[in-house]
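Please predict the structure of the following assembly.
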Amino acid sequence: MMVKKFFLLIIALVFCLILLDKAFQFFLRQNMNTKMAYISREELDYDLLIHGPCEPLWMINPTQLDSITGISSYNLALSHSDFADNFIHLYQYLKHQKAPKYLLLYITPESMDLRYNKFNTYRFADFLADSTVASIVEEMDPLYFKWSKLPFVRYAYYSNFINFKFVQGVKHFFQKRKTPYHENGYEAPAIQAWHYNLSKMVELYPKNIEFKWNSMREKYLIKLVKYAQKKGIKVIFYESPVFAPTISYQKNRGEFIEHIKNTAQSLAVDFWEFGEIPMSKNEENFFSTLNTTLKGSRIFTDTLGKHIRQNLLCE
Amino acid sequence: MSYNIDEIMPKLQVIFREVFDEPNLIIKPELTANDVAQWDSLTHIAMINSVEQTFGIVIPFQMLMEMESVGDLVQGISQLLQS
Amino acid sequence: MSLVYVEYLCFLVVFTGLYYLTSSKKIRAYLLLLCSFIFIAQHSFFSLIFLVASSVFTFFIAKKIAQTKSKPLLWFAISLHIIVLLGIKYFHWGNTLVNLSPLHFQTNTIIVALGVSFYTLQHISFLVETFHKRIPFPSLGNYLSYHAFFPKISSGPIEKPQTFLPQLASLNQSFSSENFVYGFQRILWGFFKKMVLADRLLPIVEQIFGLHTPAHGFTVWLGICLFTLALYFDFSAYIDIAIGSARILGIKLSENFNFPLHTTSIAAFWRCWHITLIQWLTQYLYYPIVYRFRKYPTLAVMLAIAVVFGLSGVWHGWGITYLLWAACHIVYLWFETLTKKQRNTIAKKLPRLFYQNFSIFITFNLVCFAHLFFRANSFATAQTLIQKVFTFPFFPQSVLVDFIAPLAGGGSQEQVFNLYISLLGCFLFLFLEKKIYPYYLSTKFRFSINFILLLLIFLFGIFDAGEAFIYLQF
């Protein structure tokens, strides 16, 4: 009797999980604020895609950029993302949208080091039906991939990154929302009121940082570039400004920049260096070594826009 | 002086009521520290001291360690009084 | 799902299957021992060797003690155990916090001798009970199982030989669905507390104790209180899982918690928190001291309190912070001993409900304050935290900037949403657990509560960053 009830419990649970799975799948796709859902649903057409982790996301404002360059751009970057993460976003974009002419990809020594940024599996929980996405998720997060086959576990596994987006998806569904909160993909840097101020940050910055080149990062960087090139997109690497006082603590920074340059060359990609431009000396422009404040973001977008106009559009 | 168990219980009851500050407490052999609100270690020793004085005995250490209920206590007292 | 949990559950299922395949007492005993050894060895082989060596040594010494009734030999064995344990604690073999991950204070802890703090106490009680001939002498196999029994090896409960050993001698019960359902429910209750409550709180606690925020006043105090909640949920969850697992095999383990955060005094708190440790200390330290000096009751009690908590501090680990934690409780309990009469008089004058809730509130805050030292990595951290709590204004000026953002690790809508869920879940559970728990075990509502708990685990549980249980380090 009791054992029978126990099995009944398990069956009821599995049934409920399957229902939840369907509900999450449906409503997460309605959330216009997640880029994966947005780029898969609406019709977009841009000349330039900006891609990478939080630095370009918070630094390059397409609206400001477009006013300088005269072409249309979209910021596809997402915080904490590595190249595998970036690759899936680009893949999804190209699957549903017209290919852009240019892809501007953020790359610094940090991008090649496993300690900085990561693969954010939860962003793809909804897209595991696509075999390309699934195989990358399997490679980057094998444990998750194994469990994701059980009903609903693909959402439950990283519930802290999913639940809110689900609730927001429900809201967007009833609002019949078509546009995201950040329409051009750019998110202005938040005022870091609770954060350490920059002088403390320099103190806290580890002395003698030694970057380690990660082959997995390199693999997905190459994969991303080759995929874009196959679709006829011109890819450009750019290095964004580094808060100057921290450069001296980065032991093998120069070596890494060289390495990136060589990689770019072998891929026939331009590498634009903005690492030590004048704005990187002013601490008002930064709230961390690589992240700019709103002021810094405006200056950089301006610099970048001019550079694009001169070097990319006048060729 | 010799006591039997029936004589020990009423005397214990008087001690318990006074030490644990419960005028209506009725003690039974199965009563333990968990059943009486004020029965903590401090009142426990006060009770032991009072028992030793009333019955004119010294309860040995090992016996104290093995006591868990009023029943154990009564048995211990009668054992000590007989010897 | 964290591999540790799944591996454990698979292990339990396989083992239970094998266990009930046979009804032979002997085969079951061997199976139990073998599987416990495998369980320990997969943690670290050294742990197994250490456990076996110390158990075999104690077993034969105890045999000698039983024959000769030699007091010096008893003292020699006990001292040796204490010295070895202190050594292990000193060299951090029991709780290596060297590989501190930046985010979670208990990950990557290398525990060389798993469960040594727990079974050392069991060794000592076995030696004492054998000396007084209060227990029948077990077989070597059963004695090894007494310590190695896999549900309780890593963090207790600390079992008395007289309650645990007889159960090993009667392993021939047939499978009982009652035991199975009870066991399943306890394990589920434990997983709920661990995954939905404790693991959601740990990152918040780390924000505060890692001094990652300039927050102060109430915000820091709440973070400190949340550590006590997290510790309670975490440790009692582990105990639930241990008790549930053992029950499925027909073995009853001792309860270690009895709603400790609902108690109205520190003395009552210690009757409900880590019960088996306190019972051990009470039996082998507290009462011996109190009885010896019983002519001076108050002094005897105060001395015994100081000794018991001082040693409890050392048992948890070397370091000034553990001693300060112990000192807090010594002071609290001394105060309660000395003001017992006055407090009783006040209690009689005030409305009962008010006095009770007020006492719970005060007790909870005192316990949290003591735990501040327990969790702080160093004396300096503790000092900084206390300074932060007493930085005015006490209440946050801006709710988002001074309160939510520091606790949530940022102020995005998603972070705020997750923080609210964590806080709501934990406090709701804390207030309701005493009321829900009897229903949970009653046959009437069992099905629905089980179902809700399972769903909540899937909706709000932390699957990816399954943290090690906090008490594993001791």
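Chain A touches chain C through 32 residues (CB under 8 Å). Chain A has a mean pLDDT of 90.
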